[in-house]
């Protein structure tokens, strides 16, 4: 497995490691509408210290084979608009996609573009056998992104996640290497 954080390109995005000078931008974006509410691990409020710790730990988490986090940057302006991640289970050759897009950039295809690039990297460079993801049952936008990039709906785990005192349904989506290779 590679140990240096990759730089991935899509037609409109550069996916690359965040730098410490971007902590303020990350802090601002992560406190935007629906970010913490629609994700499992983003605290609310999201502090500047949280942003700095996130950025500081990114390279080590990838080097140890645990997690790949990349910032979504608009190619033309280098503006940070979100995060895309791949939580890795190297023992089972599995990657779990995650991420979010800033409110002002939603519904423009950026999430699908970034997630598709991350999924391709997982299969091609990391040798994954399976890539999957989950979203809350109420998060139709994320479900749409997962289906758009070729993940198949695998089912609903009813009341499987406690979020802000409410039990949330989790929708599961995934694809395997054979299906990914067929679509190329």
TrEMBL record:
Signal peptide: none annotated. Residues 13-172 form the N-acetyltransferase domain. Keywords: Transferase. GO terms for molecular function: acyltransferase activity, transferring groups other than amino-acyl groups. Coiled coil: none annotated. This is GNAT family N-acetyltransferase. It comes from Pseudomonas haemolytica.
């Amino acid at each position: 497995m590679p140990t240096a954080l990759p730089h991935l390109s899509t037609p409109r995005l550069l996916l690359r490691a965040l730098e410490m000078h971007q902590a303020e931008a990350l802090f601002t974006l992560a406190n935007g509408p629906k970010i913490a509410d629609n994700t499992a691990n983003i605290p609310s409020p999201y502090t500047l210290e949280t942003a700095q710790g996130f950025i500081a730990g990114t390279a080590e988490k990838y080097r140890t084979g645990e997690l790949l986090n990349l910032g979504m940057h608009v190619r033309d302006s280098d503006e940070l608009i979100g995060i895309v991640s791949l939580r890795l289970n190297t023992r089972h050759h599995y990657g779990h996609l995650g991420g979010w897009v800033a409110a002002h950039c939603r519904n423009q295809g950026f999430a699908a573009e970034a997630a598709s690039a991350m999924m391709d990297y997982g299969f091609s460079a990391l040798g994954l056998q399976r890539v999957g993801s989950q979203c809350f049952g109420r998060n139709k936008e994320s479900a749409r992104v997962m289906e758009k990039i070729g993940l198949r709906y695998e089912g609903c785990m009813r009341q499987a996640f406690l979020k802000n005192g409410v039990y949330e349904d989790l929708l599961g989506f995934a694809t395997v290497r054979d299906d990914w290779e067929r679509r190329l």
